[in-house]
C-alpha cells in the first residue's frame, strides 16, 4: 500500500500532466466541480430538512436536481466554448503577439492563406520549438481570460435566464394540474339548501383565493 506522501506525489504528477500547461482547462473543470458540490449540498438540504413536508419535497427535490443540471451543463458548455474559440484563434495566428507574428513572417506564413484558417496550427510548424515558450505563455493567458469571461456570462446571464424559464414552465404545469384536480371535485350542497341555489351563491361569491396569471 502506498504511503500518503507517495499518493500526494502521484496526485501532483497527474495534476501537472493534465493542467500544468493548460490553466484554462483547470478553471473550467474546477468550476464544474464547484457547481456539482454546490448542487449536492442544495439537494441534501432539501432532503434532510425535517421542516419541509413530504409533499413539498416531492416537488422541490426534482426542481433542485433540474436546477443543478442547468447550472452544470450551461457553465461547462459556455465556458468550454469560450476557451476553445480563444485557443483556436491563438493557434491559427488570428490573435498573437509581436514575437510570434515575427516568427510567422520569418517562416513564410502567408496571412491570406494561413492566418485564421482552421487547417493551420502554429504548433504543427517544423521549427515551433523556436517560439514555443513565448507562444505557450501567451496562449495560456488567453485561455484563462476566455474561461473567466465565459464563466461570468454563464453564471450571471445565461444560467439565471434558463433557470427562470424552466421554473416558470414547471409552475404553469403545476397550476394546470391543480386546476384539473379542482375541476374534478364533486360539489355537494350544504344541508337545508338546494343544489341550484348553492351553485348560484357560489357563482356570485368573490373568492379571495383565486390566482390569476
Structural summary, described in words:
The chain has 213 residues and is mainly alpha-helical. Mean pLDDT is 83; it is low at 205-213. 70% of the residues lie in helices and 0% in strands. The protein has a domain at 19-164. The protein has helices spanning 4-19, 23-47, 54-91, 98-106, 132-183, 195-204. α2 packs antiparallel against α3 (54-91) and α2 runs parallel beside α5. The chain is built from 6 helices and no strands.
Structural class: mainly alpha
Fraction of residues in helix: over 70%
Shape field:
elongated
Q: What share of the residues does DSSP label as strand, in percent?
A: under 5%
Mean pLDDT: 83
Note the main sheet: none
Number of DSSP helical runs: 6
* Total strands: 0
**Helix/strand order:** HHHHHH
Low-confidence stretches: 205-213
Which terms summarize this structure?
213 residues; mainly alpha; 70% helix; disordered C terminus
Q: What's the topology here?
A:
Blueprint: H1 4-19, H2 23-47, H3 54-91, H4 98-106, H5 132-183, H6 195-204
Short description:
The protein is mostly helical and 213 residues long. Helix content is 70%, strand content 0%. The chain is elongated, with a radius of gyration of 30 Å.
Amino acid at each position: 500500500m502506498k504511503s500518503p506522501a507517495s499518493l500526494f506525489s502521484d496526485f501532483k504528477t497527474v495534476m501537472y500532466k493534465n493542467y500544468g500547461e493548460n490553466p484554462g482547462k483547470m478553471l473550467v473543470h474546477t468550476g464544474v466541480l464547484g457547481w456539482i458540490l454546490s448542487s449536492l449540498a442544495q439537494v441534501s438540504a432539501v432532503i434532510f430538512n425535517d421542516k419541509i413536508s413530504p409533499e413539498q419535497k416531492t416537488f422541490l427535490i426534482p426542481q433542485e436536481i433540474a436546477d443543478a443540471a442547468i447550472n452544470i451543463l450551461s457553465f461547462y458548455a459556455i465556458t468550454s466554448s469560450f476557451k476553445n474559440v480563444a485557443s483556436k484563434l491563438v493557434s491559427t495566428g488570428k490573435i498573437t503577439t509581436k514575437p510570434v507574428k515575427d516568427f510567422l513572417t520569418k517562416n513564410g506564413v502567408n496571412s491570406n492563406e494561413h492566418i485564421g484558417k482552421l487547417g493551420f496550427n502554429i504548433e504543427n510548424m517544423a521549427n515551433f520549438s523556436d517560439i514555443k515558450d513565448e507562444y505557450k505563455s501567451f496562449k495560456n493567458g488567453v485561455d484563462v481570460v476566455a474561461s473567466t469571461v465565459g464563466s461570468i456570462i454563464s453564471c450571471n446571464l445565461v444560467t439565471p435566464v434558463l433557470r427562470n424559464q424552466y421554473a416558470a414552465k414547471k409552475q404553469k404545469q403545476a397550476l394546470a394540474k391543480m386546476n384539473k384536480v379542482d375541476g374534478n371535485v364533486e360539489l355537494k350542497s350544504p344541508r337545508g339548501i338546494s343544489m341550484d341555489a348553492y351553485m348560484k351563491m357560489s357563482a356570485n361569491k368573490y373568492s379571495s383565493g383565486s390566482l390569476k396569471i
